[in-house]
Amino acid sequence: MFTVKQVEVTNFRTHKHRVDEFPEHAITHITGGNGSGKSSIVNAVPWCLYGTSPNGVTKNKSLRRDGAPDDEPTEVAVTYSSGHETYKAVRTMSYRGSTKVNLYRIEADGSETHVAGPAVKDANMAILNTLGMGSDIFSATVFFQQKATDKFIESKPEERRVIIEKLTGITANSRALDECKVHRLANKRALDSKTVDRAGIEAHQKEVAALAKKVAKLESELTEQRATWNSLTAERRELDAKVKDARRDYQTAEGIKISLRALKARDAELKEQLDATQKRIETLQGRMNDESGEVLELSVVESMYNEKLLALQNAHTQSTNLQSALKTCESILQEAEGTIARASFESKAEAAEALKSASMEAEGLTRKLDTLRHRLSVITGIKLPEAEKSYAQISSLEGTCPTCAQPIPEKEPILNTIQSSIDALVKEKSEIVADIKETEQLQVAVNQKLTAVEAVHEAYIAAGKATKEVSRIQSDLKKAAKELKKAEAEHQSALTVFNDVKQMEELARSYEEQVNLKKSIFVAITGNTRNIKQAEATLAELPNVTEHALLRLENKLKELEDKIEETRATGTETNDKHTVAATQYAALNTQLQYELKEAEAYKSLLKERELLLAAEATLKEFRQEVSARTIPELNKFASELVSGFTNGKFIGVTITDDFNVLAHFKEGSTREAQLLSGGEFSAVALAIGLAMSKVFSGSSSSLILDEAFTAYDPNNLDATIKTIQSSMGAQQIIIIAHNDSVDAIADYRIAL
Fold it and tell me: Are 747 and 23 in contact (CB under 8 A)?
């Protein structure tokens, strides 16, 4: 049972935004001048539910309100009851024409549970399941327009037959019957093409069994050969490990022996150096004893020496400064490389890409925050105040309407609906606030990530600059080294000239150097002796692996590998035999399975033929039964309706076997429906339309009559509507009409 509860339209046809309530168990009259948008309200219902419009509009974009802003969609929300459930369907169309649909179930507490969407296909199927009828049935049983009801009588007899057969399902039945005939013909051709060789199948089964035994025997041989090969392979691994250990010990011992010889040669060399140093010490000591303390007057030489000394100091300073600058640049480079290493980027380009990605993510979050804050401002500043204002206005209304002077209907359902809208807006506001908070937190994290990536990107830049600076300083260091070497040479030359003055000091320094050299040689001899003892101890601990023993192990390993290769060759031969036998088995078994399937297919085709013949008979019986039952039922119910519509002026309507429409008058005359006057024609057309609704869908709980009484006699309007109520069992009737007399009959009025 389908009834409309509420229709909300936004930017649809002539309406910017409006919400209309439709009470159950009532007649609602929608009235207004031409172009006011009366039909648009009810046309929005099938567009929302099915994506189609009963007035013939096929392009969705033509339904959009002229002048609607590009950023505002066209949207229709229809709240309806079906059975014991209440649903809300919402169809939204963007400026460019893209559409999305959502379906919600209204719970007992007024909350909404999402059922399907926004994918159009899924949501359309869900809506269809809740309604239990498609758009064709809806247009024929719920939605009535004068042009549509008149069209049936105005059509040719053949067109009337097609309409009735489509509504009864005979059209689909005919297609099914044709498909059965096509399938039966294909089935006959398939049966004619199939043959079953039972003797050949049995022979193939015996051959397959013999090949299976052969394959099993070869698999057993392969298993034994694999076990032998695995055993030999394991033995080879053990022997190979022994050979590797022996080679390693042998090579280690030989290396230690070579090192030991070198250490002993070094020991002899150091002792020779020690003897030579001792002799030089004795010689220097003798010279120091023989030299007098005479001091020569060499002021000019001393001045030259000081000049060269100053130059040497300046060269040292320049070199030291460059070394310091180099350390600073290397420190910068090390810090930048550390930052880059911690970030785990493969290249500067990857870091730049990460920076770009993080920047885009931050911008996306900023845009999302802007959108959420805008939605919040719309709800807080516009939608909630408007809803609360509407609630207050309706609450304040008492007695009669100040505009139309009609009694004000019960306010409570309307107030409850508005309160539900307010609650939904408050809920949406809370959800948006929570979403804003969550997005702000995410934005902080993304900004932190962006800062880190920017640091890595800057590190890459700093590393590049530092690398270039290091190269420059190193080049300057080379130049400074040359200058320092030159200054040292000049200083040494001056020092040589100055030797006469510093001879005794030089002798003392040489003596001291030789004494220090002697000490260092003593230390070197001591360390070398310790290394010799350590090498001898290590050599003593190693296994005594001779070259002859190592050769025996290697020959044994080669013999084992030859045996493994022989076993592998035997296994390969057996495997080849197994592959051939298995291939033959698979091919023959495949052929056998095919023959068995063909035999089963033949049986299935025989069964299919029986089913198709039975289906054809059933479909033929259905067509005959429906055709024989439907027309009399239509005639009976249409006659009852037209008699009530005309206060007994007409006693009946007949759709003949050749699909002509006849109207029967009370005085006994009969006339073709096309020859009736305007009001009589409309009454007969509406009666037949409602009869189709009754016969093809049963009792309809909701009827929408769009300009169905344009040519009606106002005196018969009351009888017509009462007849519809009593005969159709409608709980809800929605009438769009210019006729003011409808107001006297209607329970509820919507004025545009």
Answer: yes
